[in-house]
Amino acid sequence: MQARSARPHVVVIGGGFGGLEAVRALAKAPVDITLIDQHNYHLFQPLLYQVATAALSPAEVAWPLRHVLSRQKNVRVLMTRATGLDPVKRVVKTDAGPYSYDFAVVATGANHSYFGHPGWEATAPGLKTLADATDIRRRVLTAFERAETAKEKDRPALLTFVIVGGGPTGVEMAGAVVELARDALSRDFRHIDPKAARILLVEAGPRLLPALSAEMGAYSKRTLEKRGVEVLTDTLVTGCDAKGVTTRTGRIRAETVIWAAGIEASSLAAAVPGEHDRAGRVRVAGDMSVPGFANLFVVGDAAAALDHKGDPLPGIAPAAKQAGHYVGLTIAGRVSGKPSLSPFAYRHFGDLATIGRDAAVVRLGPLRLTGFIGWLFWSGAHVYFLIGVRNRVAVALDWAWSWLTRQRSVRLIIR
Amino acid sequence: MQARSARPHVVVIGGGFGGLEAVRALAKAPVDITLIDQHNYHLFQPLLYQVATAALSPAEVAWPLRHVLSRQKNVRVLMTRATGLDPVKRVVKTDAGPYSYDFAVVATGANHSYFGHPGWEATAPGLKTLADATDIRRRVLTAFERAETAKEKDRPALLTFVIVGGGPTGVEMAGAVVELARDALSRDFRHIDPKAARILLVEAGPRLLPALSAEMGAYSKRTLEKRGVEVLTDTLVTGCDAKGVTTRTGRIRAETVIWAAGIEASSLAAAVPGEHDRAGRVRVAGDMSVPGFANLFVVGDAAAALDHKGDPLPGIAPAAKQAGHYVGLTIAGRVSGKPSLSPFAYRHFGDLATIGRDAAVVRLGPLRLTGFIGWLFWSGAHVYFLIGVRNRVAVALDWAWSWLTRQRSVRLIIR
Predict the structure, then answer these.
(1) Which pLDDT tens digit goes with each residue over A171-208?
(2) Domain containing A150: what range?
(3) Are residues B125 and B251 both part of a single domain?
(4) Do B41 and A413 touch (CB under 8 A)?
(5) Known active-site residue A172
(6) What is the helix (H) or strand (E) element at residue B160, kind and residue range?
(7) pTM (predicted TM-score)
(8) β-strand A293-298 against A289-290: which pairing, if any?
(9) Residue B156, class by beta-carbon neighbours within 10 Å (0-12 exposed, 13-18 middle, 19+ buried)?
(10) What are the C-alpha distances in Å from B44 to residues A409, B61, B289, B391?
(11) CB contact under 8 A, B413 and A40
(12) Which of B138, B395, B413, B415 to mutate to test the interface with A (most CBs of A within 10 A)?
């Protein structure tokens, strides 16, 4: 189905940080926008790990895209899957039929990479969607339930949790799982002691948080270890199955493995012409367009972009939002015949990373915060960036309640 | 696995209202209790329809049984499925092995009844568990999404919602679905008008809310019709498939059918010896025990019980809770050699039913409330009966927010 009008048609694929900002930047432009997403929600991915570890409900980190955009009358939202792209005919193929475009923005993000072993995903799920998060929550909570009724000899593997990948997601997951075991579940079992659970964070490289400063990586490692996480750096995973993981240095028996390593552009990026980097990301020009296709843009984790100084853009929300905003303005300018904008200039505000309760590290210009103050800053910043008053209040209350009681409010196993 | 001790072993099957009260009434008794449930949560079933209609998150109406009981040291909770019962050998069979008991309490509840057509369940799901609720939520929201991209001719069936059964669940569901369509979704689509959705409530009997007063049934019908629900009484459903329902009076094309009719005791009730009524409920004695098996009790919707005046107990939460409490006390008395209690005397406090925003009907002794005042009373009573401060605050805030904005906070489609 294709709405026809005299106004240029902009198709934006993906309602994450980059896509949503592109749509919003076009709010007053004389265009018709179609936003395509396979889910009906915009996801605040930085807090997804809190859904996976029973701290927040799915609805607290996700908003219906339709509702977010209900007042922007030049956009229609379609919940469907984009399956292909013809950059010459200017058509996006979807499960709901083809949509031709005058401008297209690919903002489909990335998935974790299993380094050529797609089979590992079944036993070591990654964390990208709400369904992933509730699935991981179910696996983690079920492991404790199974351990409670299991035979003595089967308990150690049931109470071992391996998180693969020492980036922000891996660090946050490890910190949250150890809190779950030590605090929230500690008194609730009769046959097992959840405090005895082993949590391992396995990283192939020499240190945690490789994309951030060495100081931040060291702080994370120190804090995680103080809390009881076993941090294994320089440890490459070479095998992964239902009973555990194999690394260069040995075998770890574990019934629960969570994958937070690598990055691989979403499948639609492969349909975009031109050069791709090893992770499948599209190499884009300084205005985020695909070389040779001035009306086709890629933003966010699907793009391998350099900023105006030649540095690669980091794979974080602010970079995707700024690039989406820039591309929206670029299209608006072109439609109204204005001269092109100067190349995209990314503005880096700072780095945040959290390990859990009372522990985060903040680098913001000259500002350096760690510990409780860092954690308060981290919490405030994340509440601020949530969409909508209702979600800000709900998340702030849930965090306050968790902080006071050391409980987790969403300990549900739903199949 | 079987813990052994000198103290009598009480096995309670089902952590709903009846089972949980039985466990709590035994808190100070010199017994060891095993509470078996196939889920890890206690569910506040009266608000489950609000999860199915995107008003509340699953975690707001459910609490981990372990956490609810973490301070009661004489109980252990097992998440497993009870598959059978040997009342002579006094053994409960479960997926985690057999558990022998000195006293057993069957509190496994009931499901909806498809009147001998189990095949209808696939296309017309009922509402008993959290998974049912998120499944119905997904179906309802997806129907609007599909209608938005569908061809004109396919839209009417996608925008038709049939709710079968005019009891409290059916009335609440119909009221909530019509609010979702008229208020929360009204501005969010571009090709369809959600306000044009047809919502039908189909009841085989002559009136709504047959278990409550005629006046309450009439109020519900009047209010639902004023809000745009088509109420069809005296309309027996004779067929049900993926494209709609067939009734005695004709065919209704609808892609979404929700089942809220009939009642059928859960399968474990069939393993209990003695007489059963037509719905499979166990006929119990005046002390809720199974005739001939003084140490085996059935409470809640799995029992066909009469109170001390000979009236059947209603299938509502207060009746289950009172019976569970009574059975707990009975077992505690027997263990300590006290004389038996007098037969169970049910105390009926009153009737509540809601149709939606600003509309509920309350009969509480001499008190008669309807409309906004009735709805406020209904809301307050339900918040009061939730477990835990955190959930009370969260639900009250969500309701206040929904009342002010006419929005629904949990419009997520998760597969």
Answers:
(1) 999 999 999 999 999 999 999 999 999 999 999 999 99
(2) 118-261
(3) yes
(4) yes
(5) yes
(6) strand B160-164
(7) 0.94
(8) antiparallel
(9) middle
(10) 15, 5, 25, 11
(11) yes
(12) B413
